[in-house]
């Protein structure tokens, strides 16, 4: 008699365990510093909404909710990035040595500072003035220190460690040097919170110094970026949205000089205070004009890239923060000149900002749920 032996069928638990071993679940290994851009892009929606020169019913409440969301996002991303450094230090070091990723460390500083601006301009209605000012000073101190370190460290690494080949320049290079400009804007909001005297004047002039750091660095980098576009053609499809990053230093610098001019009379002697107020308009108007020109140019390139199948990536968050800085810049110019055209410009740019934020936000949530944004780069 022959006895047939049949293989034992697997239980449901065994089958499930086997399937889990064959499917690699997404981890934080590829969670890079570019995720701070989502925090910046969310915070600027609240900050720009609060800066609009029109009183829209319900907008203040919406801005408060968006600011709270940005603060929660900041905490979550900080924790995730901390876990990334703790569990994947090799990948974290590789990011620092990658010329395509290292510039995004500037987003850490700007995320802290953008939430800080929102805390003192919007969040004070939620958590109270004393708590808001204390939190804003803390975010300003940490964000400014990190921003100044990154503004030096990343260009240093690009010179001595990174292997940068001809034709690889991109607007991403601006990220490490824009953060001091954002610090200057937050510094302007904190100047009146200091006692009258040398403290106010030091913070005012220090903020102008950070404005200069960012502005002159931008004037060095931007010609290199445009030269790359002219001599080597348009950017790869996935990088095309980064063209909007050029708007960042333009809009943020206009915002910074406007906010600093507002507080200068109470912090420095009269002749200089009047000069700073004049400088806000003399500087801001031509720079905003160039920003609008670049917005049209970058927009045309994005439309062309979209027709060619531009894929979604975290670079789409470039449609948010840079545009938001132009909103605050236009609003500041409207305040100093009284021109209705600048008020309407601020409103139009804000609608563009909200559209970009909604699209980037929805696609990011979808990518997170599907695991695509945490997967290894192809």
Residue-averaged pLDDT: 91
What is the tally of beta strands?
A: 0
Helical segment count: 12
Would you list the SSEs in sequence order as H and E?
HHHHHHHHHHHH
* Rounded radius of gyration (Å): 23 Å
**So what's the oligomer here?**
single chain
- How does the major sheet shape up? none
Shape: globular
Which structural category fits the helices and strands? Answer: mainly alpha
Instruction: Report how far apart the termini are.
Output: 58 Å
Low-confidence stretches: 1-25
Measured as a percent range, the helix fraction is: over 70%
Beta content comes to under 5%
List keywords for this structure.
single chain; mainly alpha; globular; 378 residues; 72% helix
Q: What does the secondary structure layout of this molecule look like, with pairings?
A:
Elements: H1 12-22, H2 36-51, H3 59-87, H4 89-96, H5 106-127, H6 129-160, H7 175-190, H8 198-232, H9 247-263, H10 270-307, H11 321-337, H12 340-370
Helix pairs in contact: 2-3, 2-5, 2-11, 2-12, 3-4, 3-5, 5-6, 5-7, 6-7, 7-8, 7-9, 8-9, 9-10, 9-11, 10-11, 11-12
